[in-house]
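User: Okay, second chain of the day. Same drill as before: sequence in, structure tokens out.
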Amino acid sequence: MKKRVERLRGMHDILPDEYQHQRRVIDSLSTFLSQAGYAMVDSPILERSDLFLASFGQELWQNLYAFRLHQRDLCLRPEYTASICRLYLDHYQQQPLPLRFQYAGPIFRYETPGRNRYRQHTQLGIELFGGHTSAADAEILQLACDMLQKLQITQYLLELGHIGVASGFIQRLHLDDHAARLLLSLMEQISRSDEGEQAARARLEALYPVNTAGVDSVGLATKDAVSGIETRFIASLLNGISISFGDDADRSEVIERFLWKVGRGEQRRQILHALDFMRALHAVSGSPPQVFDELSELLDRYELDAEPLVELKQLVAIVEQCGVPRGVSYYTGLVFEIHTQDGDGFDAQLCGGGRYDRLMRAVGSSRDVKACGFAFGVERLLAQLSRSDLPQSIATQALVIPISQSDVPYALHVARAARSQGLRTELDVTGHGVGAGLKLAAKKQMLLAIIVGDSEQRTGGVTIKNLKTGQESFSLLDSLVEGLPLKVEQHRLTARVNPTIHASAATYGQQECKEVPDDQQR
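Assistant: Same drill. Structure tokens below.
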């Protein structure tokens, strides 16, 4: 027996109820964002791998579904922001700023599955290009909180921060590019817990050990950075030592290795210094205004620019005036995150966002473009919603049952007419006759069975059996819904804008069904 092909670990199937719930949430939030001027766009699921190099870096590359095909390095989309930046460069560079885009769709990351954490999940978010920094940041923060309010999610914590504090400190250390990128990429891991900091420290210790023998790929950047002055200085020292070298190439290699090791040791010292700073930075968290005093003292201690703190204070003032809930914590890490607790008390991150003014140039722009945005995980939003707040499954209301195979063409015509009148209708395609069709309709908990045969086709009508009461009636094809004991879809939808339609639909439900002539009883 052939082995069954199973679903991949970390993936999940979306069944009808969940699909309907997901679509309802996406449609509701998309409509809300459209009212704020955000146009819906989408990008291909498959992109060139190097598009995401700037946002993920080499350290997180293992989390991407990347592969090589026909001499091209390709990747399943791991997030939307870089793709939307590429979309902007392809289609909107000549358009005036600001520009607002929204999106919703699947992304793929090869990460450890967890609670409401899948390797394919649905991301919904926005990107805002252009505009004044503080005003644009305030707009996206307000929108993120308003979206939660729209879903009636009121218990959450908004964490604000400014990555410029940490990045400014790291840039001042003159680390090689690899070390600087690694530290920035580990900021979230460092800030989350002591275990996260220990894991980050272990990662850095492995890359920058106490004693390094030999040159590896990470050290090449330092080797390349050796200055001519340093080389001449070491060469003069070697000339004063009674050591013979085979040739100038050997002498150059000794110089390069010595300088690389010296630089490597300095890199290690600076990295550990940066970790100490990040630990102190993470400890400065809480509510304003006290947290700003502590942060200002920390910046003074490390002789850092206070401009990021000024920008953060301005952002906080605007956000508070906009009525964002009080559950706000200000810290220096990512620009902002929104957290809540699930039903079992576990922390769940619903949203993450921030500013990425330099990303546009990293994906191919000739200039930097001010940009900010955020993204929600739709599956995590759904986990926070009460089942009573989600729409019920849309059940089929009627089953059209042809008496014989020769009646199928007319049955198809009847099913089309019923749907056009707002009745959710299926066709019995089993071919087992009326008795089996009635059992099938009852098993699926349908309310009506619409039976068609030669006599119905001759008169241009149908026989309708109410499966709840057992009563049968005859109806003409162009007035199927009249006299039915249910509200059909088109009336229910129209009632949102026209109450009189709703009233007339209720009246139909109170009418008595017409009696079926004896010669049409079945």
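The radius of gyration is 33 Å.

User: Thanks, on to the next one.
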